[in-house]
Design brief:
single chain
Length: about 260
Amino acid sequence: MNDATALLSRWQRQRLDTVHANRTDYGHGPDSVTVLAYYWGADVEKPDTYFYRIESAFRETWLHCGMMKSFAQKFPCVEIQIEPSLIPGNLYTMSADCDGKFADRFSTDYLMVIQDDGFPLQSGLEEFLGKWDFIGPPYVRDKFFPRLIARMFNLWTANGGFSIRSKRMCDMAQKYWREIYHTFPDCHAVGEDAYYTETLLRRHREYRCTMKMADCRSAIRFAYDCVVEQPVKSLPFGFHRAETFAIFVDRGWIQV
């Protein structure tokens, strides 16, 4: 566990012991959203060692957004979907599930994907519903030329670790997966992030012309992932990656 992950983990444990201790009422969230997380990367010999982190991600989501229909692998308080094809720690098996089975996992208008290192940090979910088919931490740099190209060709690449996507997007992604991409080996094109925000946009005109991708500056307000540096001037709605969380702590935006 690196320093950033250890920092996030301590904060999550402390929040569970104080803010969320014995809490059962988080209010009511939007009926149009389903929340989903994968609990698949833990030590198979000690599967509950880091379970508190995924519990924390759900409880932080409920705290800021209200209770919503929720799914998680091995989460006791919400509906459970066991997926035997998932291999602990194997990213390809998770990507294949995201690409080919998301549409079967929910029936609401939108799906919010969270992770143990990616979830909301404050309220404001409503701002990001009803406008786009996909919004996640932007991987398009907030500079004139990259924004221009992205706008011209609707190629707003983004991270899916903490994201919101529409049911119609997941339906179309699943269709292409079953028709074409299920035969692809483990490669960048079918990695979950790239599949939804690069591969299908570039290769399929129907998808590109139908799906509305959030622009870079809207996506920055939604969440930040420090893999691609962005001009983040205040705490966004959420985050992805422990290193991003550590940056927010250093800036004084989160107290630990």
